[in-house]
Amino acid sequence: MASKSKTTARTAWSFGAFRTFLAFALIGLANTILPSLIHAANYLIIPYPRHIVILIEIAPTLLTKLMLPFIIHRIPCRIRPLLVAVVWVILKRIADDTPPNVPPPIRIATAIIASAASAAMEVSCLGMIGHAGLPGLAGWGLRYRRGVAGERRVAVSFDRGTKNARGKQREDASAEEGQSFHHERSRFESLRGLIRSETLPLFMASAAMSLSQYDLARPLDGPAFGTFTHFYTTYGMALHLGVWIGRSSLQFLPVRNLRLHMTTLFVWTALAFFNAVCLISTHLAFFLVFLIGVAAGSVYVNVLVRLVGEGRETAAGEVGFGFATAGDAGGLLVGSVVGSLLEMAMCRSLVGGKRRCYRAR
Asked: Where is this region: Disordered (predicted)?
């Protein structure tokens, strides 16, 4: 009887974990595909250069992740997906019914709303992962084409102040005022520690990955590829394959110290830049960008799992995840813009007819 009850409990737990995994996976997949469709339908690359388009599409994500965690707890968790779904339906309808020759301000507005809605859904889901546990984190990770498993958890607490009751004596009020001051100071120290230990590694990993994606492809040659689109697609697949492997390797290679991964990430990025400048080998470029993806993916998933804490309030989790993943969005913004500008500078200064910079296709 005991073994039968254990089997039943294990089956029930597995079914519940699978439901959690599937729910977060479906929401994450939709949250990734829909903004891409809206951005592609806007055709902003026609009236604006690429670095301006990147600013339009990513800056709202960064601002939303920095500001929304402090107010999103006022909205019930069950209503948030419905609100975001309504926004997606409206944006999709606008994108379907709007011709490409519509004035740019309208397309810019839809791109900003799409990015903000995607960031809001990400902050909300990551905050709920503190209660859903690793099955929810693994399901949400599918939006980045990765799986997650691990047990290292670090809780980051952000205390919320309490209101003073009426009719208390002055001594009690003074004591509460001093306690409130200590709470605010503790909150500031926790936030500063979060930025230093979690946000900065995500920023640097995302910046290195974006820089290699937007800067180092066009100066290469790619003689085996007929068009740049074919070459760039293969280049991007190598990068994202590395990201997928890095973000799904936690159960095999758990990280206790991110310094080694950050060091290897910088080494691979420097070697990839040197290879692009000297035009050593396209196959070496594929291998190096794959290694960059592995290192960046490993940094991301280890930081994210460290933020998964048991017993953390949803509001506190949303603040922690929001600020941490803001580093990812900030790194993507900085790396993409700098990479686009650096690509133009490299194509103007580097000579060599074999480079993609000097080809019509």
From this structure: 160-180
Judge whether 161 lies within some domain.
no
Which of helix, strand or coil describes residue 159?
coil
d(CA 78, CA 180): 32
Distance, CA of 193 to CA of 28 (rounded, Å) = 28
Residue 352: left if φ>0, alpha if ψ -120 to 50, beta else—which one?
A: left
Report pTM: 0.73
d(CA 269, CA 208): 7
In a domain, 264, yes or no: yes
Residue 116 pLDDT > 90, yes or no? yes
Tokens of 132: 């859903």
Residue type, 57: E
Q: Are residues 131 and 186 in the same domain?
A: no
Longest CA span, the chain = 83
Distance, in Å, from the CA atom of 207 to the CA atom of 45, rounded to the nearest integer, reads 22
83 and 203 within one domain: no
State the SS3 of 302-323: HHHHHHCCCCCCHHHHHHHHHH
Q: Report whether pLDDT(22) > 90.
A: no
Q: Are residues 180 and 294 in the same domain?
A: yes
Q: What is the pLDDT of residues 293-340, one digit of tens each?
A: 988 888 887 887 777 754 455 555 667 777 788 888 899 999 988 888
Which residues constitute the domain of residue 332? Answer: 170-358
Given a cut of 60, whether residue 3 has pLDDT beyond it is: no
Are 139 and 189 part of one and the same domain? no
If asked whether residues 338 and 210 sit together in one domain, one would say yes
Q: Which sign, positive or negative, has the C-alpha torsion 304, 202, 292, 125? A: positive
